[in-house]
Amino acid sequence: LPIFQSGSDTILKAMKRHYLTAEFQSQIEKIKNIYPDSAFGIDVITGFPGETNELFEETFSFLEKLDFTHLHVFTYSPKIGTPAALMKNQIKNSLKKERTNRLLNLSEIKKLRFSETLISKNQILSGIVEEKSDGYWTLLSDHFVRVYFKSDENLKRELLVLNPKESFLDGVLAELR
Predict the structure, then answer these.
(1) How many angstroms separate the CA atoms of 64 and 58, rounded?
(2) Is pTM, for the whole model, over 0.85?
(3) Could you identify which of 141, 144, 163, 164 might form a hypothetical disulfide with 119, taking C-beta atoms 3.0 to 4.6 angstroms apart as the criterion?
(4) Which pLDDT does position 2 carry in this prediction?
(5) Which DSSP symbol is given to 90?
């Protein structure tokens, strides 16, 4: 799978990437056909030099339609000595921040939809218990979803299997199997 960084072929070319968005989408679709409940986190950069409003909207529109779980959004910042730092059409920080926030909001929507799908399918979730806070144990599941559950036992570092029950905070509330 190529590393995704923009949903605009124009920006990918400016970044000197050797793939197009259609290739990335095709790879995601192939994997989803084999493993429909697989989770995908995607890295995306906002504010690369020359990213016009239209090119950003291409990225946003592409991501809205793409079947993924969450985004890791990075705001471009020039690094001295790199070709991109010397490019014309650097983007204002305020506009980069606005674009980053729009993609973060999209990521939250995608994450919630994915969690709801797991709940509706009663998809078994597993993971290693991390900590207990405010009465809930938490773990990051094999589907990259934050799972919360209650137990009086000390389950820290235990590998558990759980059933999701409902959306909760930034993930799902589950019960032990």
Answers:
(1) 10
(2) yes
(3) 164
(4) 56
(5) P
